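PROTOCOL LOG
Step 1. Enter all chains and additional molecules of the complex.
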Amino acid sequence: MNLTMNVIEENEKSILNVSGEIDAYTAPKLKETLLPLTKEEEKTVEVNLENVNYMDSTGLGVFISALKSAKESNSKLTLVNLQDRVLRIFEITGLDDIIDIRAAIRGGNE
Amino acid sequence: MEEVISKNASSYKRLLRSYMESQDEQALYGVEKVSKAFIKNNILPEEIVNLHIQAMADICKDLTDEYKHSMNFLLEAMIFYGLAMQEIPLLREEKHVLQSEISVAASMQQTLLGTSKPEIEGLDIGVISVPAHQMNGDYHHFVKGKDGSLGIAIADVIGKGIPAALCMSMIKYAMDSYPEESMSPKSILKNLNRVVERNVDQSMFITMCYAHYQPEESKLSFSSAGHEPGFYYNAETDTFKEFDTKGLVLGVSPDADYKEYELTINKNDMVILLTDGVTECRDGDRFIENEEVLDIIKKYSELPAQEMVENVYKHFERLQDFQLRDDFTLLVLRKNM
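Step 2. Run joint prediction.
Step 3. Record the structure below.
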C-alpha cells in the first residue's frame, strides 16, 4: 500500500498532507519528509491525516521523533483531522496528552 | 563457459529460424530451456545478444546496416547488466551468512527472554506468542513471588525486527533486578520508563501492561504504559469489558506517572492481555474488529486456557488472506476455583 504526501508552505506554517497507510514499510518515507520540516526554527508544522486510514505503531515512532525535533527548534507540531482508528492509537499510548491533536474535521483556525 | 555457448548456439539458431518462419509456441518453449541452461552456467546477457547477432547473420543474408548497428548498440547496453549479474552469487552467499546469524540471534533471544508458565493454584493460564518475522518484538514474562502472588508483564517494542528484539532483553534484565514482591505495577512501570528513556534509541519505544495477581484475595492490580487495552470477562454476566487504562508509552518522557487499577476476579472470570498484533489482524484489506476477536475467544472459552489461545490464533491463521503483519501475543488468565 502506498503513502503519498505533499507539503504546502504558508508564512509561518508548513502543512503536510498525508494519504494512504502508515506502516513499517511507509513510515521511513514519512519520516524523511516530516523531520526536515520540524527542524526549521519557530514554525508550525501541521500534519493533515484526513486521508490516512491505517497507521500502526511504527507511525507513532515517527511522530514522537518529530515532536522531539520540533521542540528542539522551538517549533510546534500539530496533527489534524485524524480518523477514529488512527486517533485511538494516540489515545491508547497516552500520546494525545503530549502531542497537539485536533481530531475533528473542521475548517479555519481555532 | 565457451563450451556451453557453442553447445547451445546451434539449437538457438534452429529455434530462432523456426520461430521467424511460423511463430510457433514450441520454439518459445525450446528457447526457455536454452535460456535456463545459460543462467545455470552463469552465461552473461551480452553473450546471448552476441549469439543472436551471429545467428541472425546466418539466417538472413540481407540484414540492413541499421539493424546491425542497433544490435551492436544493444550488446554494449547489456554489458552493464552482465557486470551487475556477476555480483549475484556473492550477494546470495552474504545473504546466507546473514540469515544464519539471524537465526542464531533468534534462538539466543528465546533463551534470554524465555519464561515459563507458573503453576498457581486456582488459576488457569494460557499464552501464545508468534513473531511476524524471525525475531519477536513482543515480550511476556511471569514472575512467581514468594508470597504466592504472580507478576505478569506483556510488552511490545515500537519499531520492528532485530533492534526491537535486542531492546527487549534490556527490559527483561531491568525487571529481573527489581525485588518483585515489594513493587506495585505502577512503580515498576515508572522505573522501566526511566531505563528506556535513558538507554534506548530516540525512535524506539515500548508499550507494556504489568499486572500483579494475589490469589488469596483474588485481586488483580495492573497498570498500563500505552499498551493495547486488555479485557475482563465477567462469567456471571457473560460480558467482556475493555480495560480503561491510560498511560504514556515507555521512553518518551522521563517523568511519566502511571495509574494503577484494581479488579476482583470471581470463579470462571477471565483476564485477557494481548498486543496490537492481535487487534490489528487483517483479512486481506479488511480489519478485524475487537468484537470479532472477543467472539472468537468466547467461542473457545470452554477449553483449557492454553488450548483456547492456540485455537484463537489458528482461527486467524486460517483466514483466507491472513498475513501476520505484526508480532502476535495473546495471554489469558482464568480463575477456576
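Step 4. Note key features.
The mean pLDDT of chain B is 87.
Residues 2-86 of chain B form a domain with the Methyltransferase, Methionine Synthase (B12-binding Domains); Chain A, domain 1 fold (CATH 1.10.1240.30).
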